[in-house]
Amino acid sequence: MGRLIVIEGLDGAGKRTLADGILAELRRRGRSATRTAFPRYAEDVHAELVAEALRGGHGDLGSSVHGMAVLYALDRRGAADELRAALDAHDVVLLDRYVASNAAYGAARLHQDATGRFVRWVAELEIERFGLPRPDRQLLLRVPTEVAAERARHRERTEADRARDSFESDDGLQRRCGEVYAQLAAADWWSPWTVVDGVADVDFGALVDLLDSDRDAPHVG
User: Fold this and answer.
1) Which among 12, 86, 171, 173 is placed 20 to 30 Å from 101, CA to CA?
2) Could you give the domains of the chain?
3) Sheet hosting strand 219-220, strand order edge to edge
4) What torsion, rounded to 10 degrees, do the Cα atoms 58, 61, 62, 64 define?
5) Looking at residues 118-130, what average pLDDT do you find?
6) Residue 54, CA atoms < 13 Å, CB-side half-sphere
7) Mean pLDDT within 43-71
8) pTM (whole model) above 0.85
9) Is the pLDDT reported for residue 30 higher than 90?
């Protein structure tokens, strides 16, 4: 059985770059690894609806915190069997966003913290009811909100298919979401968390050593 590793963080934090570095180091060591990013916009109808709602489609769907959260959750539920198969076939399965994204963004939209009712509801839905695979470790890629926002704006300017959606362009939401993420990480919500400095250079060798172990390392970089 492989290890399930999740990368979480704000829009523009650099999750894709971190995933690329981890995968390169794993493969350099001869390890079998694969990756998936949520939402699966090109693969799942629920994720398609999310993308459309974030850009003003489907009436007031985008304004419904719980409605959007259910769509995100159903996307992951639809991928659960594939995740289990990948864990059987690989040493490491790396996810760009997972259940904690739903918890953090929804709580931030409702101006709640990590101890609030929304986070408990997400856990009841996705962890208890849907029975999604539990991560071995969750990595919070921490960057200042202003840095993440500038990276997202740069991505929008330089990549034709990466226009910011309504969540990404809401600076207040991103700030509150960062606070909830920090609380989830401090509480080791659902599984152990490690905070990775998203501004400093990442030592991918040391990070993969950590992922290979069961050591408690709350911070890297």
Assistant:
1) 86
2) 3-39+80-220 (3.40.50.300)
3) 33-37, 92-96, 3-8, 137-142, 193-197, 219-220
4) 180
5) 98
6) 20
7) 94
8) yes
9) yes
